[in-house]
Specification:
Order of helices and strands: HEHHEHEHEHEHEEEHHHEEEHEEEH
Structural class: alpha/beta
CATH superfamily of the largest domain: Type I PLP-dependent aspartate aminotransferase-like (Major domain)
Number of strands: 14
Largest sheet: 7 strands, mixed
Strand order of the largest sheet: 2-8-7-6-5-3-4
Bound molecules: pyridoxal-5'-phosphate
Shape: globular
Radius of gyration: 21 Å
CATH topology of the largest domain: Aspartate Aminotransferase, domain 2
Number of helices: 12
Strand content: 5-15%
Oligomer: single chain
Low-confidence stretches: none
């Protein structure tokens, strides 16, 4: 008998899918390696360098020898700085002991889901959604319950539909505002309607992912936990990757009621332990230092957002909602599905993305990866020159299908 390593994989291993974004990025790299000119609008990553004051703080910390294990929940200085930020900017009065610093917001999400979700528990996820939520819920053995809003609803599921989906097994509702992949921003009034639903269900909590809060062009950030009675009911999640252009530093955080925060730290101690020490000192500088570069990056995204919206609105057949935040556009491409490109039938947004990549040199991500198969995601965290090129190619390609 031969040894078959694949036969040893656990059932959990099959729940961990690498995801369409990574797949599309990989295909883009392969085509580029073959010399093809491809504009990549796939990755949700700022194209800016981390602001200088943050890099300097990391260097200083390194030179001071701050390269050791840190407490699992984070360095006290950073937890204090995060508690102050949440209080001053978000109206959230969590004590520092409720804060858990994680190795990226992604880990904070997993800490949260693993802490409260087990087999049989339902998690309400509002589609279009960031694909990791569903993967994390499955990983924890929970059941994702997906509710979908279309482009004409501004991609926001109304509270009445959420109310109708709550069962006695519902434990968590995930809200991501501003949203990846749609750029939608929930208003205070919309969130108040959701809070009214949560208030009726004493076992239901909310995971509020606020990682794009510094990339808002119109409207105000409302933190779900700041609504009346919602602080204890909310696990607030945030991180440094997007607003401070710190994706590779891997630093995120959560704030939650103390028993949950403690469980989250325990989860993290099993999986990875405390975050990198000198990075935590850089994060203190990020929170306490000047924000002009953060604002300058937001303004650059705003300009690109205007370009992208204007360009996409000129393409016949695309339906696109406003983009009040983030660096994503999420046009509905239903009009192109079922069309033919020569002999090639385009039967899904996956096939549309493959065709756009192979025949027109633009890499996007199919909406199926976000629970929204009629749309595609374009990241505009890239230069205006690349954006212009992509818009020309999209326009030529898509027009030829109609
Ligand atoms: C909505 C959302 N939450 C969380 C994350 C994870 O961020 P981090 O880099 O801190 O793990 C991302 C990254 O793409 C995201 O889009």
């Amino acid at each position: 008998m031969t040894f078959d390593p694949a036969s040893l994989l656990s059932p959990r291993a099959s729940t961990a899918d690498e995801g369409a974004i990574i797949r599309m990025s990989q295909r883009t790299r392969e085509l580029k390696a073959k010399g093809r000119d491809v504009v990549a609008l796939t990755i949700g990553e700022p194209d800016f360098d981390t602001p200088l004051n943050i890099r300097d703080a990391a260097k200083t910390a390194l030179d001071k020898g701050l390269t050791h294990y840190s407490p699992v929940a984070g360095m006290p200085e950073l937890r204090e700085a995060i508690a102050a930020k949440l209080k001053d900017e978000n109206g959230l009065a969590y004590p520092a002991s409720s804060i858990v610093v994680a190795n990226g917001a992604k880990q904070a999400i997993n800490n949260a889901i693993l802490s409260v979700i087990g087999p049989g528990d339902e998690v309400i996820i509002l589609a279009p959604y960031w694909l990791s939520y569903e993967a994390s819920v499955r990983f924890a053995g929970g059941t994702p319950v997906i509710l979908t809003a279309g482009v004409h609803e501004g991609y926001k599921v109304p509270a009445s539909r959420i109310a109708a989906a709550v069962t006695e097994r519902s434990k968590l509702l995930i809200i991501n505002s501003p949203s990846n992949p749609t750029g939608a921003l929930w208003t205070r009034a919309e969130l108040e309607d959701v809070a009214a639903v949560v208030r009726n269900h004493p076992r239901l909590m909310v995971l509020s992912d606020e990682i794009y809060e510094y990339i808002i062009f119109e409207g105000e950030m409302t933190s779900f936990g700041a609504l009346p009675d919602m602080l204890e009911r909310t696990i607030t999640l945030n991180g440094f990757s997007k607003g401070f252009a710190m994706t590779g530093w891997r630093l995120g955080f959560s704030a939650a009621a103390e028993p949950i925060a403690k469980a989250m730290a325990r989860m993290q101690s099993v999986i990875s332990a405390g975050a990198n020490q000198f990075v935590q000192y850089a994060a203190v500088a990020a929170l306490k230092g000047p924000r002009d570069e953060v604002v300058a990056m937001r303004e650059a995204y705003r300009h690109r957002r205007d370009l992208v919206l204007a360009g996409l609105r000129r393409i016949k057949g695309l339906t696109i909602a406003d983009i009040p935040g983030t660096f994503y556009a999420f046009p509905d491409v239903s009009a192109f599905i079922g069309r033919k490109a020569g002999n090639r039938a385009i039967l899904s947004s996956d096939e549309l993305c493959d065709w756009l990549l192979e025949e027109h040199g633009v890499a996007t991500v199919p909406g199926s990866a976000f629970g929204a198969p009629n749309s595609i995601r374009l990241s505009f965290a890239t230069s205006e020159k690349e954006i212009e090129k992509a818009l020309t190619r999209l326009s030529e390609g898509l027009s030829s299908l109609l």
